[in-house]
Specification:
globular, alpha/beta, 15 strands, about 25% strand, about 325 residues, 11 helices, seven-stranded mixed beta sheet
Length: about 325
């Protein structure tokens, strides 16, 4: 057997990886998925309250010799997430990673990939809808792949959008203004990112400027909805992180495409766009990128974090496992 597994803390994760690194790691894994060298474990969840859910996702990355799962429960907006990595060579445990910061980077990195592939190349303004813990990393991801000069922030609570605007200015150095409504935030914005827990649609096609790109990143269980059905009618490109996951979990997409496999052919996995190095087509109206989360995203970042942690001597060694038979009496 190899070396004992390591426990990698949040501090280790953030010391070894920044968001631009996460975007690059994710693109590498997505290319492997398109080439058949990586596969997702279907995401599963259990609602434990009206708007609280327990989740489990995972993936196998044959190209890196590692598989693993991530699990967490979100209760009242709070969670403690762990990612567990195993060797595909001998099945041994390689690492346990505290994965809240990693998860935020994973979600943001996926936004970065979608934005890099589909947003207008000259986009300078971002409308950010939602002020939760994922909002700032998602803004940073858009700024990592586009030269963002202004961000407009909206949420239902004025104090929340004002506080986030100040944080963005402090941490990203980008001019940021609170908006009084979704429509005001989205008006003429070439990029709109929604990252909320909304259960009713708040964004419709009339709010989106011609030529805009929408990242729909928040509604990751069927009880949640962010945008109205008329958005689909204007989309020239519709891409998702995982078609199977979106079919199972996105209320917006389920209402639009139902169970008709032929209709779902209009929905493209982002891995294919990455593998083919596809970008936003010229002259199109709207583009849409939807992500519900998939295990491959976490594994992509986890594999990179593990390699860097081992190279830098980070992480605490977990005690060697000693097999003990069960007590039968």
């Amino acid at each position: 057997m190899g070396a004992a597994p390591i426990w990698i803390t949040e501090a280790d994760v953030t010391a070894t990886m920044a968001l631009p690194d996460a975007i690059a790691a994710l693109e590498r894994a997505l290319a492997m998925e398109a080439g058949g060298a990586a596969a997702n474990l279907p995401k599963t969840h259990l609602m434990v309250a009206a708007n609280d859910a327990m989740h489990a996702i995972g993936a196998s990355v044959a190209g890196a010799g590692i598989c693993g799962t991530k699990t967490w429960v979100n209760v009242g907006g709070a969670s403690q997430t762990v990612l567990v990595l195993f060797s595909l060579e001998d099945g041994r445990l390689r690492a346990v990673i505290e994965a809240t910061a990693l998860g935020q980077m994973r979600t943001a990195a996926m936004t970065g990939v979608g934005t890099a592939r589909l947003a207008p190349a000259d986009a300078r303004c971002l409308a950010l809808i939602g002020t939760g813990k994922q909002a700032l990393p998602n803004a940073a991801a858009c700024a990592a792949v586009r030269d963002i000069e202004e961000i407009r922030v909206f949420s239902r609570r004025a104090e929340a959008r004002e506080a986030l605007a100040r944080r963005i200015v402090d941490e990203l150095g980008i001019r940021t203004v609170p908006a009084a409504s979704v429509a005001e935030a989205a008006a003429d914005a070439p990029i709109v990112t929604a990252i909320t827990n909304a259960t009713e649609p708040f964004l419709d096609a009339a709010m989106l400027a011609p030529g805009a790109h929408l990242n729909a990143m928040g509604a990751i269980v069927p009880v949640r909805v962010e945008f109205a059905q008329d958005v689909f009618e204007r989309c020239s490109v519709i891409a998702v992180d995982t078609v199977d996951g979106v079919r199972a979990l996105s209320a917006e997409f389920r209402e639009r495409f139902g169970e008709d496999d032929a209709r779902w052919q209009a929905v493209r996995p982002i891995s294919r766009l990455v593998a083919e190095d596809r970008r936003r087509p010229s002259g199109c109206d709207l583009t849409l990128f939807k992500a519900v989360g998939m295990g491959l995203s976490d594994l992509a970042l986890g594999i990179e974090v593990l390699a860097r942690a081992e190279a830098e001597g980070l992480g605490a060694r977990v005690p060697e496992r000693v097999r003990v038979p069960p007590r039968l009496r």
